[in-house]
Amino acid sequence: xxxxxxxxxxxxxxxxxxxxxxxxxxxxxxxxxxxxxxxxxxxxxxxxxxxxxxxxxxxxxxxxxxxxxxxxxxxxxxxxxxx
Length: 83
Hints:
Blueprint lengths: L1 H13 L3 H15 L4 H7 L1 H5 L5 H4 L5 H17 L3
């Protein structure tokens, strides 16, 4: 359930929405101050906003559950991004 909302925020931030960028920044900051997979997920937020979509690059050092979330997030971002 988190992937669609997070993808929407990342998509808006990547298109220049200042509020979405600020919210994503705050979320990433909070996530990187935790441990484990959330820390890694927070660490890739800027890459996602900047357009990185390579799952091998984005999921380094992540558990299977975190990788699954990133894959869902990438699927949602692909739906939102015109080809």
